[in-house]
User: What shape does this take?
Amino acid sequence: MYPSAGVREPTIEDNWRGIVLYGRNVQSYKFALAKSLLDLKPAEGDLIRLEDLAPIYSRHLTEHLKTADKQGTSGSSKFLDTCRGFNAGTVSQTELVSATVKLGFANVIDAFHRVQQGDVPARFYIDERRSNGGIRITENFSLLAEQPQFSDLPQEAEARWRLVETAWELKVSRALVSVDHDPDAEVLFTLDGKRRRKNVTSSRDALNGYQKGYCFYCFDGIHLEKGKDSFPEVDHFFPHTLKQQGFGPVIDGVWNLVLACKECNRGEGGKFASVPTEKLLGRLNTRNEFLIGSNHPLKETLMAQTGDQEAGRKGFLRDFYNRAWASLLHRWEPEAKGPPKF
Assistant: This one.
């Protein structure tokens, strides 16, 4: 068994990320609604009428349809066909908004808070479509908007959307979808059926939510805005130098990538070419199980890289750890800057 980080109550950000990162998606509407709410940033008690929500919501969908025509698992959708018509110039903005109000919210408003078998504890709006023609914002969304990580949530939602739609767009078996990392460009990419590369999303944007917005090693806060001191770096948990010591390209796998603050990654006393401690190995296992819990395509990628069953994945990490330690001979762990987040 790996050391446990202990039990902590889910935060308001955990509830939001549960909706965006862990739902079993058959359409991309939940992502469009999440991004629309983040754009609007309404206050507690605000009523957002469907006719006011529709232009923003449909804009996100039409923009994604330009690069990924497959926005769900079903074969046809009258609403998405209207969005396609808008992109083609055969549907006006007024017609698009009208169709969005009529068709675009049919299921997503009911299902937005649902993750796996039930709703998340914190609801971000109340459905008042029948009584007032829209949704009423709750205190939870106002609390979310006050959190330091709020500004990163749109990028996390966009990254998740890109990953999901890419899996649909490739039109191959889920088991064959593999997401790889380009360490130079720091992007996640995949290959289509003709082995052509397709960049999906920034590695940072894709990983940040699964670390809850904190440095993997010391739990200092990190943020996705470039230029800030808290902008994270993509780090190899098992150091990249092992790639030249017989460990091969598996080192660049998503399973081995974490986000770290600059101090932990390359500051004085940073990790460099050391192997993190066994406690941190347990944390890597936890983070990887978060990724697997997100469903495809990261689920299939991590399972292909580390094992189909959790026990096998723990064994993979343990074996890799023993080999890496024997090769590098130094272990490292920083002083924590906050309580464990996962």
Observations:
- The mean pLDDT is 92.
